[in-house]
């Protein structure tokens, strides 16, 4: 190879190296440049909302919510949640019952309606908390969303029968894991006093377990067939969306601090819905209960 050719090759390599370095510098300068800021705050005045997940009183036989011991536990729960200073207490009954419920609540405030023999959490937690905070009304937010389409006449027995006939080996892929974890957690929770029962049910771990369970089993039934499983979970989302919007309709974002008392399995989805709705700031029920326990 002659001298002129070698010199030309070296010149070409130098030019390519310079070009590469220049390109790299431009790319680095672009990556170092600050990204434009997106507008994120659609609502600045937010109502604070806390979702208290509970078991339904009267439905766990080994708890007598009216016993002196559990009445003391209930007072501890109310004292812990009172620190949140709720301006509205919301219960898991349908809004169509609002007038009758508030007649009872007003009678309760006046001492004419007694709840000493009524173990339901609506009375033991809801009425008592609202009275503590001087609230003049109780708010209702449940929705009995209809079963339509593939869910017409739905029962879990019907779902299980269809699943075994059409989706065996798929819908029950995680069944053993679900069963083992569920039994362990339920036994653990039910072995606690009433305060710690609710504390555990409101923990981040319990919320995650409830969410996972509902996405591990039922929704696997009937995919690309009758869609019963996905439709069942879709109906559950729809119900909770309606419940959340029942609260949204009555909110005053300037001042409200809303305590919602609801079955614990609703907590995972309601927490998400309130967190993603700009009118609300989600507050942890677990942190308030934990702080009350440690006092």
Describe the structure in your own words.
It is a single chain. The radius of gyration is 28 Å and the shape is extended. The protein starts with a helix and ends with a helix. By secondary structure, the chain is an alpha/beta fold. Helices cover 54% and strands 8% of the residues. The protein has 11 helices and 5 strands, in the order αβαβααβαααααβαβα. Helix 7 runs antiparallel to helix 11 (285-293) and helix 9 (228-249) packs across helix 10 (267-276). The longest helix is centred in the N-terminal third of the chain and has 30 residues, at 3-32.
Strand order of the largest sheet: 3-2-4-1-5
Q: What composes the largest sheet?
A: 5 strands, parallel
Q: What does the overall shape look like? A: extended
By DSSP, the count of extended strands is 5
Number of helices: 11
Low-confidence stretches: none
Series of H and E elements: HEHEHHEHHHHHEHEH
Structural class: alpha/beta
Percent strand equals: 5-15%
Please give the alpha-carbon distance between the first and last residues.
Answer: 89 Å
Helix content: 40-55%
Mean pLDDT over the full residue set: 91
User: What is the domain tally?
Assistant: 2
Radius of gyration: 28 Å
């Amino acid at each position: 190879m002659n001298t002129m050719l070698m010199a030309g090759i070296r010149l070409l390599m130098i030019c390519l190296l310079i070009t590469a370095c220049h390109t790299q510098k431009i790319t680095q300068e672009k990556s170092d440049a600050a990204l434009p800021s997106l507008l994120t705050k659609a609502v600045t005045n937010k109502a604070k909302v806390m979702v208290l997940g509970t078991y339904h009183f009267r439905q766990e036989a080994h708890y007598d919510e009216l016993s002196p011991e559990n009445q003391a536990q209930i007072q501890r729960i109310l004292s812990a949640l009172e620190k949140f200073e709720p301006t509205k207490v919301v219960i898991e009954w349908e809004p169509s019952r609002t007038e009758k419920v508030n007649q009872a609540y007003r009678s309760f405030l006046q001492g004419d309606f007694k709840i000493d023999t009524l173990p339901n959490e609506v009375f033991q937690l809801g009425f008592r908390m609202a009275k503590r905070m001087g609230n003049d009304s109780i708010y209702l937010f449940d929705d009995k969303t209809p079963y339509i389409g593939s869910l017409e006449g739905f029962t879990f027995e019907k779902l299980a029968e269809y699943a075994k006939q059409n989706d065996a080996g798929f819908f029950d892929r995680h069944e053993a894991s679900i069963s083992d974890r569920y039994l362990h957690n339920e036994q653990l929770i039910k072995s606690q006093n009433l305060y710690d029962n609710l504390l555990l049910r409101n923990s981040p771990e319990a919320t995650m377990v409830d969410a996972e369970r509902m996405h591990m089993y039922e929704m696997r039934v009937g995919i690309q067939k009758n869609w019963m499983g996905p439709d069942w979970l879709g109906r559950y989302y729809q119900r909770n969306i309606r419940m959340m919007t029942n609260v949204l309709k009555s909110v005053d974002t300037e001042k409200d601090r809303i305590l919602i008392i609801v079955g614990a399995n609703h907590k995972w989805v309601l927490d998400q819905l309130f967190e993603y709705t700009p009118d609300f700031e989600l507050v942890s029920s677990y942190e308030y209960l934990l702080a009350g326990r440690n006092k």
